Amino acid sequence: MQKACQGIKKLKSVNLAFFVLCLMFMLFSANYANSQNLSRSELNAQIKASEDHARRLNVSVSELQSTQRIENESKRLDLVKVQSKDTYYLSAKDERVALK
Description:
Shape: rod-shaped
């Protein structure tokens, strides 16, 4: 009878140790998943910021390439007068221009 009781006590302690081990593994897994989710969120935020920056740069490029700016700069530098009516687009795809 005593051997049976000791066997049951050992079995309970083994089950308890296994339960604690499983609980620690579950906590470790949840922590790892949360850290990966946080890293992914940070990377997505960086990607969005980079896309916004690229859009702002594209707007700046468009403004710097406008014919109005070219006219203003040529006036400021006393270069040959450029008029918008003399500007012809060679192709809409490449946005290349030529003066008459």
